[in-house]
Structure formats: C-alpha cells, structure tokens
Design a protein that fits this description.
CATH architecture: 3-Layer(aba) Sandwich
Structural class: alpha/beta
Largest sheet: 7 strands, mixed
Order of helices and strands: EEHEEEHEHEEHEH
Radius of gyration: 16 Å
Helix content: 25-40%
CATH class: Alpha Beta
CATH topology: Rossmann fold
Number of domains: 1
CATH superfamily: Alpha/Beta hydrolase fold, catalytic domain
Shape: globular
Number of strands: 9
Strand order of the largest sheet: 1-3-2-6-7-8-9
Length: 229
C-alpha cells in the first residue's frame, strides 16, 4: 500500500491480513485489549481474496473498570451497564482516529463504500459509533458481543447514513456483556438506520467469545456487502 502510514496512528502497529489478489475492499477489525494477533488468525480463515483486513492495536491507557491499570483499550470503561457514565472524549477521539484511517485508505485507492468496520466487545462498540457518525457511507458494520456507546446522543449524533448495513452477533451466555445489551442496541439502531438493515444473531451456550457459526455469518455478511468488482 502506498502512502505514509506514520501519518495515521492506528496503522503504526496494525496487523494487516492481505488479500491474495488485487485488493478492492477493506475490513478494519478492532478487538478489545491486546488480542489483535489472535483475531488476525481468525480473519485469515474467513477472508475473501480481494479483501484486505486491517487489525489496529489499541493504545495503552488507564482503565477505570480494571482498577485504573494501564492496559490496551480504545477508551476508558467505567463499568458495563447501560446507565454507567461513559468516556465521551475518549470515544470521540478513538472514532476520529478510525476516520483518519478511512481517509488514508480512500487516498490509496479503496473508497469508503468499499470499507467495512467491525470488532469484538469494546472494538465492536467503537466500530458502531464510528460508522454511525462518519460523513461517508461505509459498506457496513460487524458488531460482535458489544453495545452502542453514547447511545443517548443518538439519533441526533448520527451522520444520517440510513442505509448502513449492520450485523450484530452475541453469545446468549455472555457473562460480561449480557445479550440484552445487544437486544437494546438493536432496537436503538433500528431508529437510527433503516430497520431492515439491522440483523441480530444470537448463539446458545456462547460466552464472551466467538464460534465457527458466528464467523460463518460474518463471512457471509462481508461477501454480501463487499462483493467482488
């Protein structure tokens, strides 16, 4: 890829899973904390030959939920409940960094409508917020085991991209982010975008993790909304 990666902070230490032929689309995948290499391996198994996966690494910051320990995270977490105070400035800063990455990819030949955001847990939450507030129409969002940050600011905060496709997946036995979070998020999303564009899939017995069935759904979603051109 051409261009100066150093001008885009998220690309400095990102893991990139390249396509096996000319890359005409990109999926930027965010995970919670520092498991990016594991997710890169997972994404390799579901990649399409013309799609590039970019897996940025979260910066190290103090996390309130973990007794202010410094650890990789996209933004601070005060707790995991719908009404807990949120790190508004941190969420918005992280979203702006993702938008800079989108602009970088666009300048290097992959337009925003061929870029999809996705992530697990906090990374999925950040992907949702960024896509909904992005000035560009993106190809879609994959939101795994997560929620919509700053949900009370929507729909006012939305950039108005009503046709954004969204796939939510969640384990029904998730002890960290219970599945009702995704159900409430889904209802909120249906107010922000076209309700027909929001799909929620749940998986019996699945904890705060992923499974082959979920990954198969993700691959199908990517193939549908990022078709070969």
């Amino acid at each position: 890829m051409c261009g100066n990666n150093m001008s885009v902070p998220l690309l400095a230490e990102a893991v990139t899973v390249s396509g096996t032929e000319k890359e005409t689309a990109a999926v930027t995948a965010f995970c919670l904390f520092s498991v990016r290499h594991g997710w890169a391996d997972t994404l390799t198994a579901i990649r399409l030959p013309y799609v590039k996966f970019i897996c940025p690494h979260a910066p190290k910051i103090p996390v309130t939920l973990n007794m202010k320990m410094t650890m990789p995270a996209w933004f601070d977490l005060m707790g995991l409940s719908p009404d807990i105070p949120e790190d508004e400035s941190g969420i918005k800063k992280a979203a702006e960094n993702i938008k800079a990455l989108i602009e970088h990819e666009a300048k290097n030949g992959i337009p925003p409508n061929r870029i999809m955001l996705g992530g697990f847990s906090q990374g999925g939450a950040l992907s949702l917020y960024t896509a909904l507030t992005c000035q560009h129409q993106l190809a879609g969002v994959v939101a795994l085991s997560c929620w919509l940050p700053l949900h009370k600011s929507f729909p006012l905060a939305s950039s108005g991209n009503k046709n954004l496709p969204i796939l939510q997946c969640h384990g029904e036995m998730d002890p960290m982010i219970p599945v009702p979070f995704s159900v409430m998020t889904s209802e909120k999303l249906k107010v922000i975008v076209n309700p027909d564009n929001v799909t929620l899939k749940t998986y019996p017995g699945l904890l705060h993790s992923s499974c082959p069935q979920e990954m198969a759904a993700v691959k199908e979603f990517i193939g549908k909304h990022l078709p070969r051109i």
